[in-house]
Amino acid sequence: MMLNKKIIICDDDEGILDMMEMILDDEGYQIIAESNSLNLRSIIERESPDLIILDLWMPMLSGDQLLRMIRDTEAYKHLPVLVISASRDGETIAMDAGASGFLAKPFDIDGLLGKIELQLSATNWQA
Amino acid sequence: MNAFLDGKFNFSGDSLKYNFDLLTQALNASISGIIITDNMQPDNPIVFCNLAFEHMTGYTRAEIIGHNCRFLQAQDRNQKQREILANCVKEGKECVVEIRNYRKNGDLFWNELYMSPVKNDKGEVTHFIGVQNDVTSRKNAEHDLRQQKTLMEKQVQERTIALKESEAFLTSIIETVREGLLVLDPEFNVLSANYHFLKTFKVSIEETVGKQLYELGNNQWNIPKLKELLIKILPTNNPVVDFEVEHDFPHIGKKLMLLNAYRVELEGQFKDQILLAIEDITDRKEIERRKDDFLSIASHELKTPLTTIKGYIQVLERIIPKDASEKFVNTFSKVSLYVERLNTLISELLDVSKIQTGNIELHMSEFDFDHLIRETVDGIQATFPGHKIILQGETKAKVMGDESHIIQVINNLLSNAIKYSPDAKTIEVNIANVSEYVKVSVRDFGIGISPEDTAKVFERFYRGSEIQKKFPGMGIGLYICDQIVKNHQGTLWVESEKNKGSVFSFTLPKHRKDNDAE
Known about the structure:
The structure holds two protein chains of two kinds.
Chain A (H helix, E strand, L loop, with lengths): L5 E5 L3 H13 L3 E5 L5 H8 L3 E5 L7 H10 L8 E5 L4 H8 L3 E4 L4 H18 L1
Parallel strand pairs in A: 1-2, 1-3, 3-4, 4-5
Helix pairs in contact in A: 3-4
Chain B lengths: L15 H14 L3 E6 L7 E4 L1 H7 L3 H4 L15 H12 L3 E8 L5 E12 L5 E10 L1 H41 L3 E5 L5 E4 L1 H6 L4 H4 L7 H4 L4 H13 L3 E10 L3 E14 L2 E12 L1 H37 L7 H31 L8 E4 H15 L4 E5 L5 E4 L1 H17 L6 E9 L2 E8 L6 H4 L12 H4 L6 H11 L4 E6 L3 E9 L9
Helix pairs in contact in B: 10-11, 11-16, 12-13, 13-16
């Protein structure tokens, strides 16, 4: 059922990218992992993902900057974005920037999968 | 010239004897001693003395008549008044001297002696008349007064020196102290300013003293809120305490200052003066901020690889082969346990730093208390299936507080309860309404805490003596819990018995008392 769901993960830390890709891949999601925040916009346009998982503290463009950019684009206004961060104020920053969900690092796999499922089902329901 | 010949002594008739008698009685009634000496005889003997003279000197008439006056001086012969007397006798002049005389019994008395010559037709001095008054008490009083004056002068001198010394001492303190100090009069004119004030705000004493506070340096002290507080000081004695002001000064840039102002009081009497102390906390705040920033970055950076590690461990846990040994499985669960602990430690590091500098921010919102407890307990229960956590009671309360902080407290108490009761299987959590508070108690049946440790468990970095070996940690968890509960104006406490278990309880007011005066 999840086979067709496409998730972009954007995090500057390769370790986290690899780990998440492995887990979500096993779950049957289609994963596009990106460590350079500058590339995110073009990837979104190219891939039309069902969900974006976004880190906050990244070089070049920070997660909240990217998120605001996404929300400012009419086509992606309702695109689910799950923010993951180890920052203490992460949740506040994420919600202020328009995130649809937040998960604190480090997280449990079950927690991650639960949040992803929630985000994806919400879009289904919205659509 | 001669009163006698003028008839002034013809009192009531022509009888000379009668009149003479009256004069003699008058002489004897006098309280001044009166004597007459005969200057025509050798050594000027006393030929008359009245009663007062006898009383004054203690001698009887018989002992007096025929003697020269000097017998009254006894052995005290070197007085310079004697010279004056001798000169007057020689030149036949009158004089007044104060001379030391001695009574028959040897007692000293001061004699104010008025001596006047009596001359005959030829101008020769025939007699001297001496009138004497005992002025000892006056002399004594004078003496005492002089002594008192000397003593007082000495005391005044000593006190002046002491005052100067203490003034110098105080001045040196005032000038050395690293806090700007101003003394203001009721109109907020600057009466004095110390060195540190001048240095911090780069002004001269001329630009400051005598000026109105609000006019100093382009009205930069004209702060309405400060004005309002200062106005209240003199009439109400309400001091201004730790009033934080940020100002962009023309020459020295942005400064963060802590202001304290008090009414100047002396021996319980208040003076019409205000002491304003200005502490420049710009650098201190900046250092605190940088430290917090550093710790935020450090904890973020440490958590990033930890996220990866935790993820991979969980991946591996999921693919543990069915035939894996028990040792293999146990080892795995231990690894994840310690990764979790490392995560907690990193979070705590930042918390402690924030709490210590008072920078912890509360995000207050109303939340469903029972729901929060249930979710938190469920979360911990899922992580530690080895213990059964029994939740009892309900409050149906909405509580105003920082949800994430309260969750942190409950998580901490629960994980402690589990950690310190390795051989017990149950933990009891009880929640209840207590007046305007909600109360949470977490009971374990574990190793307990010794009485000497119970008082200290909420101290920072405190670890129970026997605990350290068996249960390593940093000893900040309970300290943070205590601070969080205090921030919410509640209390956290423990009751415990060695080897029986512990009960940690805390209360939270459902609604914060904002006017809680410290």
